[in-house]
Design goal:
The protein is an alpha/beta fold and 458 residues long. Helices cover 31% and strands 21% of the residues. 44% of the residues are buried.
Length: 458
């Protein structure tokens, strides 16, 4: 029984959505918030799509959601999704409202939802995914998500028992979620010549979660991602159902085993995190029912979202624009690691202030001391330009990392960052920006382009 409160909430939210569109306002969670104020159990009363795919985890959610939706669309599916909206409760409600008509009847057979880990306790009692992908669990913003084990407990206690899990078998934390649930694992096998990463500042799984004995790592790719076993009990990394077996960086292709069936796929990005995101999407959609041929054909058409990563050549210089999420030490560390391994002389521009957080509160800088700024000490990095409100905090952190002050330049405004780059010293310029500072990166790119096209760098 939907009841009068449900319909009042439905009509109010739909009308509110129309008003926001007329005003060209981006209020992706506000209609849902309004619906919940009128009818707090709105989600429990509404008709749901026949199938629901959920995607959660610390890093890679949005990228993986984009891939999943592009592949589904290429195969003729038209799911409802919060691709362009909020992944917390209000945004989920707004998304689901868009999938029902004015009489409260569902108009979609499939939903693909990006789900904030901490909000899962509010969403899962009402929305029970048939399949739930967890990309990984790492330390994130201290004010939002605290420690990875804190988020693990929230997910572990709230995942519906009927949900089948698609988990990262190389992640020693998220692989343990909801142990009674049906599950499959994806991962990336150690590659020939790949070196273990032993110099991360944080490693959140040094001990067995069951008996407390030290873990023995057969291979550690970064932080707690790898293959390990307990030195005392039988705890160990699980066997992989979906495994990237061979990466071919020269041809930008990879070999992947889908439950024993070998498949050749196009890579969607140069970094190992891109490979994990692709493996996650393939595992989820394989469990959904797409064939290896359908996946292969659709992945050939995929491109990295340019707001997340882009490579361009301007005036004889190579420019790379990449998201490096502020307040997320692991996300930044992965980008720093990618930069130190990138060939040639490099300049790095930091514009990673969390402006979304700054609108309502004070940005917490403690994450800087979990992130591996030491990776930027590499001799191939000729200059680091720190920009934004926290530019001096980045300078202090870089000095603590042992980086010479001669290599550090500070500017207060992000718009001035590109003007501060010494073009005579670097072949490649990296612009690292937060998800809220994409506009700053584009402005910096335009300034750099103007400098290079006037041959200022010569």
């Amino acid at each position: 029984m939907k009841g009068i409160r449900f319909y009042l909430a439905l009509y109010g939210a739909k009308l509110f959505t129309k008003v926001l569109r007329v005003l060209h306002r981006n209020g992706t969670h506000n209609p849902g918030v309004l619906a919940l104020k009128i009818c707090p159990d709105f989600l429990s009363r509404m008709d749901m799509p026949k199938q629901i795919l959920g995607i959660t985890g610390t890093n890679g959610k949005t990228t993986t959601v984009n891939m999943v939706l592009d592949i589904l669309s290429d195969n003729g599916y038209e799911p409802v999704s919060n691709r362009a909206g909020s992944n917390i409760l209000g945004g989920i409600v707004t998304t689901m409202i868009s999938a029902i008509d004015w009489r409260g009847r569902t108009t979609k057979d499939l939903a693909v939802l990006e789900l904030d880990e901490r909000s899962s306790r509010l969403v899962f009692p009402h929305v029970r995914p048939d399949l739930l992908l967890c990309t990984n669990l790492f330390r994130d913003s201290f004010k939002r998500n605290a420690h990875s084990e804190f988020i693990f407990d929230i997910l572990d206690q709230n995942i519906p028992s009927s949900t089948k899990l698609v988990l990262n078998g190389d992640d020693l934390i998220s692989a343990r979620l909801a142990p009674k649930n049906d599950r499959v694992y994806f991962g990336v096998l150690p590659q020939e010549g790949e070196e273990m990463t032993e110099d991360n500042r944080i490693q959140d799984m040094p001990l067995c979660p069951y008996c407390g004995a030290p873990l023995r790592f057969e291979f550690r790719r970064y932080h707690h991602i790898g293959r390990a076993a307990c030195t005392r009990c039988d705890f160990a990394s699980p066997q992989l159902d979906y495994a990237v077996t061979k990466v071919h960086p020269d041809t930008l292709r990879l070999d992947m085993s889908l439950k024993g069936k070998e498949t050749d796929l196009k890579m969607v990005g140069p970094s190992v995190t891109d490979t994990y995101n692709l493996a996650a999407a393939v595992a989820l959609l394989s469990e959904f029912g797409l064939t290896d041929l359908e996946l292969q054909r659709s992945i050939e058409k995929l491109e990295i979202v340019k707001s997340r990563y882009q490579e361009i050549d301007i005036g004889g210089k190579h420019v790379i624009l990449s998201v490096a999420k502020g307040q997320n030490p692991v996300a930044c560390s992965r980008v720093f690691d990618f930069i130190r391994r990138y060939e040639g002389r490099k300049a790095v521009v930091l514009m990673v202030d969390d402006l979304g957080d700054a609108k309502t509160t004070s940005e917490n800088i403690s994450w800087l001391y979990d992130a591996d700024f030491e990776f930027l000490r590499d001799d191939s990095i000729t200059q680091i330009v720190c920009s934004g409100v926290r530019n001096l905090d980045y300078r202090v952190r870089l000095l603590i990392a042992g980086i010479s002050p001669d290599r550090i330049t500070c500017v207060r405004q992000e718009a001035d960052a590109a003007s501060a780059v010494d073009l005579t010293q670097a072949d490649t310029i990296f612009f690292l920006y937060d998800v809220y500072t994409v506009s700053h990166a584009k402005t910096a790119e335009a300034v750099l382009r103007a400098r290079l096209e006037t041959k200022e760098g010569e």
